[in-house]
Amino acid sequence: MPGDDVRAILGRRPPRGEPAFGHVDLSEKARAQLADIVRGVKERCEGSEEVPFHPTDRPEDGEVLAGSLHGFDSHYQEKAPWSLERTVASVRASGVPEPLGAKEIEGGRWSFYALRLAEAGTDTVVIRRRAPTYGLTNKWYAVLAGTELRPVEEPLLSFDYDAEVAVVDQRVYVLRPEQTERLFVDADEVKRRAPETVGRFAKDIGARLSADTVMAVERVCSRNAFTARRVERLLAEGVLREVNAAEVREGLHDAGLAADAFGSSGPLAAESDDLATKLVEIADDLYYQPRFARPSRRVAGWRNVG
User: Fold this and answer.
1) Which pTM value belongs to this model?
2) Burial 197-208 (b: 16+ CB within 10 A, else e)
3) Is 254 helix (H, G, I), strand (E, B) or coil?
4) Fewer CB in a 10 Å sphere around the end CB: N or C, the chain?
């Protein structure tokens, strides 16, 4: 395929002092087959209806969430060495990096990979949240040469005809939002900073919270990175001041709770883990009726209806 550029890198959350990415050398046959993977994902994205990206939205059949590459890391963990923008920059970098050796591939604890295809004036990167050695360890491999089995000595890698994210030039297509968030967010770090996050939540929200409620929200966020990320997004959007006690209590029915579940008056009392989670979800307008100031949302993709 003259004029094309096919590359593969492995990625990880790097140990201290180690690189986040490693380059994999490719034969001509491997280049051709990986190029087919990238083309297939690109065609799938471009054949879908684009929906503006938000990290908590979900695409319906025939849709793909899409946004601009520049600044995309702000949706996740901007300073992470393995961030989306850094991954794309690494696989698109000029020059030929030193390729990984067999020991580095086998012992590198790689957790995702990126493939890049530049052809016909278009630069496409696809990213898969799966170790390229997934399912290939603790097995004995051999090839049949004539009638003789011969062991495979080199490490095996596999690449799927699928991806979590694709980047076509400067356009990002998110095919699997939940998997993408798990890839680009360090859940342990999110849970570690729960006390700071919930302290800001208690300060910014327009409703008074009982002390035990604040403790319950912190407890949930320190155990559940998904809920903690929801609180972080509410803080980033600057909308918590609109969340007042009267409207929260009005929303209890929509959330399947009794009218006095948070107390009938005074500070909101959501003092169990389940109630604290419901409080965060109501604050994020997840139950049918939007009650607080929010950007326009798609009901089918955003509302918690289960």
Assistant:
1) 0.80
2) bbeebbeebbbe
3) coil
4) C
